[in-house]
From TrEMBL:
All copies of domain Methylated-DNA-[protein]-cysteine S-methyltransferase DNA binding, residue ranges: 73-156
Superkingdom, natural source: Bacteria
Entry's Gene Ontology molecular function annotations: methylated-DNA-[protein]-cysteine S-methyltransferase activity
Classification via InterPro entries: MethylDNA_cys_MeTrfase_AS, MethylDNA_cys_MeTrfase_DNA-bd, MethylDNA_cys_MeTrfase_DNAb, MGMT_N_sf, WH-like_DNA-bd_sf
EC number: 2.1.1.63
Gene: ogt_2
Protein family membership: Belongs to the MGMT family.
Protein name, per record: methylated-DNA--[protein]-cysteine S-methyltransferase
Amino acid sequence: MPANFDAILPAPFGKVGVRADGTRIVEIFYLPDTATALAPRSEVILRLQAELDAYYADPDARFDVPLAIAGTAFQQQVWQAICAVPRGGLTTYGDIARKLGSVPRAVGQACGQNPLPIVIPCHRVVSASGIGGFSHHAEDGFHLEVKRWLLRHEGAMLI
Protein backbone atom coordinates (compact mmCIF):
# COMPACT_ATOMS: atom_id res chain seq x y z
CA MET A 1 0.00 0.00 0.00
CA PRO A 2 1.45 3.39 -0.93
CA ALA A 3 2.29 5.70 1.93
CA ASN A 4 1.82 8.94 0.03
CA PHE A 5 -1.87 9.72 -0.17
CA ASP A 6 -3.36 12.81 -1.71
CA ALA A 7 -6.07 12.73 0.97
CA ILE A 8 -7.12 10.64 3.95
CA LEU A 9 -10.85 10.96 4.45
CA PRO A 10 -13.07 9.94 7.36
CA ALA A 11 -15.36 6.93 6.88
CA PRO A 12 -17.84 5.19 9.20
CA PHE A 13 -15.51 2.18 9.37
CA GLY A 14 -12.20 4.07 9.74
CA LYS A 15 -10.57 6.19 7.07
CA VAL A 16 -10.09 6.10 3.30
CA GLY A 17 -6.74 6.89 1.70
CA VAL A 18 -7.01 8.36 -1.80
CA ARG A 19 -4.56 8.87 -4.63
CA ALA A 20 -5.43 10.95 -7.68
CA ASP A 21 -3.65 11.99 -10.86
CA GLY A 22 -5.04 15.53 -10.76
CA THR A 23 -8.24 14.91 -12.73
CA ARG A 24 -9.12 11.28 -11.87
CA ILE A 25 -9.17 9.03 -8.83
CA VAL A 26 -6.41 6.42 -9.16
CA GLU A 27 -6.60 4.40 -5.92
CA ILE A 28 -8.65 4.04 -2.77
CA PHE A 29 -7.42 2.22 0.33
CA TYR A 30 -9.18 1.31 3.56
CA LEU A 31 -7.25 2.60 6.58
CA PRO A 32 -7.84 2.22 10.30
CA ASP A 33 -9.30 5.07 12.29
CA THR A 34 -5.82 5.76 13.71
CA ALA A 35 -4.60 7.06 10.32
CA THR A 36 -4.02 10.80 10.36
CA ALA A 37 -6.59 12.72 8.32
CA LEU A 38 -5.32 14.63 5.31
CA ALA A 39 -7.67 17.16 3.73
CA PRO A 40 -8.33 16.97 -0.01
CA ARG A 41 -6.45 19.50 -2.10
CA SER A 42 -7.94 18.85 -5.51
CA GLU A 43 -11.38 19.22 -7.03
CA VAL A 44 -11.57 15.55 -8.01
CA ILE A 45 -10.91 14.41 -4.44
CA LEU A 46 -13.41 16.93 -3.07
CA ARG A 47 -15.93 15.45 -5.50
CA LEU A 48 -15.07 11.90 -4.37
CA GLN A 49 -15.45 12.98 -0.74
CA ALA A 50 -18.92 14.38 -1.46
CA GLU A 51 -19.92 11.19 -3.29
CA LEU A 52 -18.56 8.98 -0.49
CA ASP A 53 -20.44 11.04 2.11
CA ALA A 54 -23.62 10.66 0.04
CA TYR A 55 -23.03 6.88 -0.14
CA TYR A 56 -22.44 6.63 3.63
CA ALA A 57 -25.78 8.41 4.15
CA ASP A 58 -27.63 6.45 1.45
CA PRO A 59 -26.30 3.21 -0.06
CA ASP A 60 -28.25 3.94 -3.25
CA ALA A 61 -26.11 7.01 -3.96
CA ARG A 62 -24.22 6.67 -7.24
CA PHE A 63 -20.61 7.38 -8.08
CA ASP A 64 -19.69 9.32 -11.20
CA VAL A 65 -16.36 10.82 -10.20
CA PRO A 66 -13.74 10.41 -12.98
CA LEU A 67 -11.65 7.28 -12.47
CA ALA A 68 -8.28 6.08 -13.79
CA ILE A 69 -8.90 2.34 -13.93
CA ALA A 70 -5.63 0.55 -14.71
CA GLY A 71 -5.55 -3.22 -14.96
CA THR A 72 -5.22 -6.17 -17.30
CA ALA A 73 -7.99 -7.01 -19.74
CA PHE A 74 -9.08 -9.86 -17.46
CA GLN A 75 -9.11 -7.62 -14.37
CA GLN A 76 -11.20 -5.08 -16.28
CA GLN A 77 -13.72 -7.84 -17.17
CA VAL A 78 -13.94 -8.92 -13.52
CA TRP A 79 -14.39 -5.33 -12.33
CA GLN A 80 -17.15 -4.77 -14.89
CA ALA A 81 -18.88 -7.93 -13.66
CA ILE A 82 -18.59 -6.67 -10.08
CA CYS A 83 -20.17 -3.34 -11.04
CA ALA A 84 -23.17 -5.25 -12.43
CA VAL A 85 -23.98 -6.69 -8.98
CA PRO A 86 -26.79 -4.53 -7.56
CA ARG A 87 -26.67 -2.85 -4.16
CA GLY A 88 -27.72 -5.37 -1.53
CA GLY A 89 -26.82 -8.25 -3.81
CA LEU A 90 -24.04 -10.78 -3.56
CA THR A 91 -22.23 -12.95 -6.07
CA THR A 92 -19.42 -15.46 -5.69
CA TYR A 93 -15.97 -15.67 -7.19
CA GLY A 94 -17.18 -18.88 -8.86
CA ASP A 95 -20.23 -17.20 -10.41
CA ILE A 96 -18.08 -14.52 -11.99
CA ALA A 97 -15.51 -17.12 -13.08
CA ARG A 98 -18.18 -19.16 -14.87
CA LYS A 99 -19.48 -16.06 -16.67
CA LEU A 100 -15.96 -15.18 -17.82
CA GLY A 101 -14.78 -18.72 -18.59
CA SER A 102 -12.20 -18.58 -15.83
CA VAL A 103 -11.57 -20.03 -12.37
CA PRO A 104 -12.54 -18.62 -8.95
CA ARG A 105 -8.93 -18.12 -7.84
CA ALA A 106 -8.21 -15.83 -10.82
CA VAL A 107 -11.36 -13.84 -10.07
CA GLY A 108 -10.30 -13.57 -6.42
CA GLN A 109 -6.90 -12.28 -7.51
CA ALA A 110 -8.55 -9.65 -9.72
CA CYS A 111 -10.87 -8.65 -6.88
CA GLY A 112 -7.87 -8.31 -4.58
CA GLN A 113 -6.20 -5.98 -7.07
CA ASN A 114 -9.24 -3.70 -7.39
CA PRO A 115 -7.73 -0.21 -7.04
CA LEU A 116 -11.08 1.49 -6.38
CA PRO A 117 -13.04 -0.36 -3.69
CA ILE A 118 -16.45 1.06 -2.82
CA VAL A 119 -16.68 2.61 -6.30
CA ILE A 120 -16.00 -0.81 -7.86
CA PRO A 121 -17.91 -2.73 -5.16
CA CYS A 122 -15.75 -5.83 -4.71
CA HIS A 123 -17.26 -6.21 -1.24
CA ARG A 124 -20.29 -7.72 -3.01
CA VAL A 125 -18.20 -10.74 -4.08
CA VAL A 126 -17.96 -13.58 -1.56
CA SER A 127 -16.63 -17.12 -1.53
CA ALA A 128 -18.90 -20.12 -1.90
CA SER A 129 -18.28 -20.97 1.77
CA GLY A 130 -18.16 -17.59 3.48
CA ILE A 131 -17.38 -13.92 3.20
CA GLY A 132 -13.96 -14.39 1.57
CA GLY A 133 -10.85 -12.23 1.59
CA PHE A 134 -10.81 -8.56 0.78
CA SER A 135 -8.78 -5.50 -0.18
CA HIS A 136 -5.54 -6.31 -1.94
CA HIS A 137 -5.78 -9.91 -0.65
CA ALA A 138 -5.96 -8.86 2.99
CA GLU A 139 -7.64 -11.35 5.25
CA ASP A 140 -7.12 -9.62 8.58
CA GLY A 141 -9.94 -8.60 10.87
CA PHE A 142 -9.97 -4.91 9.93
CA HIS A 143 -10.54 -5.45 6.21
CA LEU A 144 -13.17 -8.12 6.79
CA GLU A 145 -14.95 -5.79 9.21
CA VAL A 146 -14.95 -3.09 6.51
CA LYS A 147 -16.48 -5.62 4.10
CA ARG A 148 -19.11 -6.57 6.68
CA TRP A 149 -19.92 -2.90 7.34
CA LEU A 150 -20.34 -2.19 3.62
CA LEU A 151 -22.56 -5.25 3.10
CA ARG A 152 -24.72 -4.41 6.13
CA HIS A 153 -24.95 -0.78 4.97
CA GLU A 154 -26.20 -1.96 1.58
CA GLY A 155 -28.68 -4.38 3.12
CA ALA A 156 -27.00 -7.57 1.90
CA MET A 157 -27.83 -10.78 3.67
CA LEU A 158 -24.50 -11.77 5.26
CA ILE A 159 -23.38 -15.34 5.13
